[in-house]
Structure formats: C-alpha cells, structure tokens
Amino acid sequence: MKNNEQKPDFLFEKANYKFLLIGIAVITLGFILMSGGGSDDPKVFSEDVFSFRRIRMAPTVVLIGFGITIYSIFKKFKSE
Cα(34)–Cα(31) distance, rounded to whole angstroms? Predict the structure, then answer.
C-alpha cells in the first residue's frame, strides 16, 4: 500500500496567522482602553468620558489593529 497522504493545504502561512492574532490583540486593547468613565450615580455627569484616552488614543489603537489585521490577510509570505 502506498502512503498517499497529503499535507493539509492552508489558506495562509504561519506568519499570516501570527500577524492576525497580533491585530486582534491590538483591537482588543483598544476596546479595553475605551471602556470605563461612567458614573455610579446617574444624576452626576462624569467628565472622564471625554478624556484623551477614550476620545483619541483608543480609537487610534483600534484602527491600527484593523490595519495590522488587513495587512495579515493581504501579505503573501514565502513558503518555508
């Protein structure tokens, strides 16, 4: 009997998956940075909602994460 088992053919290379996971982690970090800033008392307004971290930094981190994810999908790495 011949052993004609073929190696599974994956859509991406190992490096693509690494970049994809890094991108997902950066997106998650951005959403974690966006969280919080609420008030315990609904009648009291908290100015923390408008902090630099939530308005500028967190959305930028999320967009960078999406950029890394898109890069991981389109980049063609050489097969090992």
Answer: 5
CA 73 to chain centre: 13
Q: Inform me whether the pLDDT recorded for 3 exceeds 70.
A: no
Q: What is the DSSP letter of 43?
A: T
DSSP designation for 44: S
Label residue 65 exposed, middle or buried (CB < 10 Å: 0-12, 13-18, 19+). buried
Reported as a single tens digit per residue, the pLDDT across 44-53 is: 887 888 889 9
Sequence-distant (6+) residues with CB within 8 A of 51 are: 37
What is the token pair recorded at 78? Answer: 């050489």
